[in-house]
Every structure is written in structure tokens, then in C-alpha cells.
Amino acid sequence: MRYISTRGGAQALAFDDTVLAGLAPDGGLYLPATWPVLDLGALTSLDYAHLTAAVLAPFAQPVIDAATLEAICTDAYRGFGHPDIAPLRPLKPGLWLLELFHGPTLAFKDFALQVLGRLFDHVLARSGQRITIVGATSGDTGSAAIEACRDRDAIEIFILHPEGRVSEVQRRQMTTVASANVHNIAIEGTFDDCQALVKAMFNDKAFRDRHALSAVNSINWARIAAQIAYYVWATVRLGAAADGVVFAVPTGNFGNVFAAWAAGAMGLPIRRLVIGSNRNDILTRFFATGEMKTGSVFPTLSPSMDIQVSSNFERYLFELYDRDPQAVRAMMTEFATAGCFHVDAAHFERCRQTFAALSLDDAATTETIARVYRESGVLLDPHSAIGVAAAEAACADGNGVPVVAVATAHPAKFAEAVRAATGVTPELPARLADLFAREERCATLPAELPAVERHIAATLAGRGAAA
Length: 467
Ligand SMILES: *Cc1c(COP(=O)(O)O)cnc(C)c1O
Known about the structure:
Blueprint: E1 3-5, H1 15-21, E2 30-32, H2 40-43, H3 48-60, H4 66-76, E3 88-92, E4 95-99, H5 109-127, E5 131-136, H6 140-149, E6 155-162, H7 168-175, E7 182-188, H8 191-203, H9 205-211, E8 213-214, H10 221-237, E9 245-250, H11 255-265, E10 270-277, H12 282-289, E11 291-293, H13 313-320, H14 325-338, E12 340-342, H15 345-354, E13 355-359, H16 362-376, H17 382-397, E14 403-407, H18 415-422, E15 443-446, H19 449-466
Helix pairs in contact: 3-4, 3-10, 5-6, 5-10, 6-7, 10-11, 16-17, 16-18
């Protein structure tokens, strides 16, 4: 499979180069040149890891063979805390919860990142390269990236977080990882300061090249590809491969729901995709009006969706406009300069045939957590609650096919919000129960580029001497 850019100005790449590149050099996002077709019958009998390997196989060929993919996926999902990896839990008649929070950091990002870290290592080992991953986090992504890259031979990872501004569980999930290639930096500043520092390091060409900086951000194609698997898994598990299924997905960046759309493009019978947003409702507004317009970011109970730019939407736009890179370029230029763009009536109609969207403020999110707990005894984290509310709206539409709400985080990860809604404190899974007793490792630095670059260079020099 070759990969092309949504903006049409970059050379087509093979799978390994696409994974290493992340963003295309023309500013676009990579998509496969064609959509492979799923053989649903052949996937029905597979366990989760083998099903993921089978879904990834056409995307990765001829660069990575089937046996290697199976080994990578089996290893990636070994550490998950549930034998089904992605269990389906019935919530009420016609409505299921797809639990994507049994990974090492208790959020759905583990599904893709556990595979991505191993893919990086495999590809780099073949070419003898080493890379330095640098990233900023407001909480969730950092720990998932660290768990994915820990102990990988070809990778050093540095994660910047704003000192005192992430929850204690989130901080400890990063700082208690004892692997020698993992380096945490608490920045005396905000998340925006952390992001600005990372951006400045990537813009410092000498620094970037000397240390082979790389990123594991959410626009990496391999992350989307790995996420396609759980939509396929849920559908075949429900026996819905013939009649179809509806998915409700809490999303901000459009990544998770684009993976569902991609599964549909590969032949999964998806009847409808329902997007759940919090108060940062750029997507909900788009699906109501056809206009994508960014606004200011409000902090909410579901912080992993507190964004006003849905980067992965560009992939869907490319498809919506029948893969016309000129149309995408025009809209993305308008978005960058004016902060908004819109799609014409005919294309908007097509969007609405596939997608619906619903936005919940914090009060409605809390109410949903409380009500679902009362009705079914299930504790939902705020992100998952938004997904369930979106799924309930889809059930009310009543087209009779199963509706699956995607649960993206474990309730214990957002224990404060869950306790406030239900009076119950969700417990961390046993494998994380000693999180508060583990030793932390973290440097603290001012929000100044020279200090951060000096620290990273010195740390890498020390690691080189040790290696
Ligand atoms: C990252 C995240 C989301 C949003 O995912 P998208 O990439 O925006 O689709 C939702 N819930 C949780 C718990 C997350 O960590």
C-alpha cells in the first residue's frame, strides 16, 4: 500500500516512511491510495490481537509481513487487563458499551499507541536509526505515549507537562515509569507553554536533526489504522456483519470517529456515526450548519476533548470531496487564515447521511453519569458518558440495529467527576493499585527553550555513554 497526502503536494510513500513522517511535508495528512476490502467472514473467529494484525496487514504490505504484524499485535495487547481486550458490555436493550479502557494507561489511546511504539521500533531497527520522541501533554496522551515507547531500543522519549496542572493520577502514570529511555519534564508554566516549547524544538532545525526528533501525535496514519480494528471487532462480535451497526463516539480531534468511518469505507456495514462533544462543540456545530468555525477552548470535565481544531477532519474532507486535494487545500487555507470554512449544500447533505452529532455541557455529562449508574450500576467516566448520551439519542431514532457507545476512559481515571455525580469512588484496577506508592522521576525546568534543549541534549549524551 502507498500513502498519499490530502493536499496533493507530497510524494506517495510506503507504510514505514508514512509512519515515521507523521504529517506530510505539504502540510496534509496521509491516507492509503485505496481502501482495502475487509473479509468479515475470515475475521469472525480471530482473537483481538490477530484480528488487529489482519486489519493492518493490507495497510502494511509489502513492508511488514503478516507474521511480524501478528507478533507485534500479540505483544502490544498482552498487558491489557481484560481477556477480551475490548469487551462489549450490554447496557440496555439494543445498546452496548465497547470498553476501550483496559490498556496500561486506562484510555483508548493505548490501542493505537501500543502498536505504534512497536512499529517504530521494528522499522527503526531495520534501518539502524534511533529517534527522540518529544511531546507535550495536558494529561492523557503523555502517559499513553510513554507506556508505548518505554523500553523500546531505538527510542528515547521526553514528555513535557505543566507543573502542578495535571491530576496526580495522570502525573504518576508518567513519572513512575522506571524505564531508562523515559524522561519526564515538568515545565514551570501552562500546557500552552509546553506545546510552544515542543513546537520551537521542532522548528530549531539544527537541534531537530542532531537528535532525530519525532512525534507520535494523533495525525499519524498508523494510529487510525490500529483503531479501525475495534470497530470491526465489535461488529463481528455482535453478529451484526449482515444487518449493520451504529457507533457513538466521543471525539474532539475526529481521530477515533474517522477510524470508524474508515472501517465503513472498507466494507463494515455502519449505518450511522454519532459524534459526542463537550462544550467545545466545533464538530457538533459543523454537523448542524455545514460551517467549521473555531472558537476559544473551555476547560470541561472531559479534558481530552477540550480542543477547537479537529485535525483529523481533513481526512474526511478529502474523501467527502472525492479525493480532490485542491478542494481540501482551499478549505484548509481558509481555516488557517479566517478560522472558518464551510462545505456547500450538496456535500453537507452527504455528511448528514453518515454523521449525527450531539454536544453535552458539564451539567448534562454529570447527569448522564448519575442516571446510567442508577439505571444499570455502571460507572462511566465523563468522556464515555458523552458517548452513551450520543448513543441513546441514536437508539431513540430507532432503526433497530445494535448501537455501540465507545467508552474511551476508565472511570478511575476521572474519579473526581465520577464521585461528584454518583457518590461512588471508582477504584483503580489491581495492576495500578500501588501507583501512589511508586517512586517518581521527573526534572523541573523553566519554560525557556535553551534550558529545555540543554537538558535534553545532556540527557541524551548520558544515555549514549551508557548504551
Ligand atoms: C483522546 C481522547 C478522546 C478524544 O479522541 P479523538 O482523538 O479526539 O477522537 C476521548 N476520550 C479520551 C478519554 C481520550 O483520551
